[in-house]
Design goal:
CATH superfamily: Spore Coat Polysaccharide Biosynthesis Protein SpsA, Chain A
Largest sheet: 11 strands, mixed
Number of helices: 7
Number of strands: 13
Structural class: alpha/beta
CATH class: Alpha Beta
Helix content: 10-25%
Shape: globular
Strand content: 25-35%
CATH architecture: Alpha-Beta Complex
Radius of gyration: 18 Å
Order of helices and strands: EHEHEHEEHEEEEEEHHEEH
Number of domains: 1
Length: 303
């Protein structure tokens, strides 16, 4: 059974200050998403759907997707402010898309097989793609009862250049997700990892498992995502900042007993680009992996 990759690439990255999804990181001009596509193809993924803003389509195709021609089936969907269920009237004044959960929803017409969701600007590693694609191949496309996600240790997902937000997993004894709790303003302070809760500083151990938006779904999930999005949008329709996040979907699936979500742990390294200064760190990590023969010095043409 085929597996699709859904790449969330519509966010601009306000803290980064540019279109970080296509920024060159590798020695031959590769972006982080190039390494994800390379790993996904190696893991047997045969189709990719990119969620982008329509105004960046030309630039995205020139820098990213054209190089995959003949290697993997490619589709695009657009995430716009007024791409909504029919029940929701258009909104005015809002410029920012409605978040990662909404980005998954806009892809519903292009995906009819189990699929992996990733952020375009996050590096997840070979093992992560192998683990999640193997799990998805064991699922029935029409079955809503089983989904999955990749979990990373919190301590491996922090930035030295500023605070980050992370969705911390509560996991039961069978390895299934019970709840995701968003923690904000997480940073290292001396020998501690701290976050802010109601303006109070609290500590984290560092070994907590967090979601980095690498999630595996069957297409049966789209009906539930539609309902969750409606429940979110109706009271927030006039908001200029409210966002419907991917963890909202996962929490609703568990809370409503509609699906179990297996947390698949990985030893793959993770790194991402939140701040401009993270770019050099990402380059160092890629160069290290090239030295260790995990990747060729030039990814494409893919052989």
């Amino acid at each position: 059974m085929g597996v699709t990759l859904l790449v969330l690439a519509a966010g601009m990255g306000s803290r980064y200050g540019g279109l970080k999804q296509i920024d060159a990181i590798g020695p031959s001009g590769e972006s982080i998403v190039d390494y994800s596509l390379y790993d996904a193809i190696e893991a047997g993924v045969n189709k990719v759907v990119f969620v982008i803003q329509q105004k960046f389509e030309k630039e995205f195709k020139e820098r990213i997707s054209n190089k995959y021609s003949g290697k993997i089936e490619i589709h695009f969907v657009y995430q716009g402010v007024n791409d909504m269920p029919n029940e929701i009237p258009p909104t005015t004044g809002r410029k920012k898309p409605w978040g990662t959960g909404h980005a998954v929803w806009v892809a519903k017409g292009k995906i009819h097989e189990p699929f992996i969701v990733i952020n375009a600007d996050d590096f997840y590693g070979k093992e992560s793609f192998l683990i999640i694609s193997q799990y998805l191949r064991s699922l029935n496309s029409k079955d809503i009862s089983r989904q999955c996600m990749i979990g990373f240790p919190l301590c491996n997902t922090l930035s030295t250049n500023g605070p980050v937000s992370r969705a911390v997993c509560e996991i039961d004894r069978t390895g299934n997700l019970q709840q995701l709790t968003e923690r904000t303003e997480i940073s290292k302070k001396e020998d501690k990892i701290v976050f802010l809760e109601n303006d109070n500083e609290r500590c984290l151990a560092g070994n907590e498992i967090v979601s980095m938006n690498m999630v595996g779904f069957t297409p049966a999930v789209f009906d539930i995502i539609n309902s969750s999005l409606l429940d979110f949008i109706k009271p927030n329709r006039t908001s200029l900042t409210a966002e419907f996040y991917l963890p909202n979907i996962l929490n609703d699936l568990v809370k409503n007993n509609e699906s179990s979500i297996k947390v698949l742990r990985t030893t793959s390294p993770w790194f991402g680009i939140t701040y401009k200064a993270d770019k050099e760190w990402a380059r160092e990590q890629i160069n290290k992996l090239i030295e260790e023969k995990e990747y060729p010095a030039q990814l494409w043409p893919f052989s």
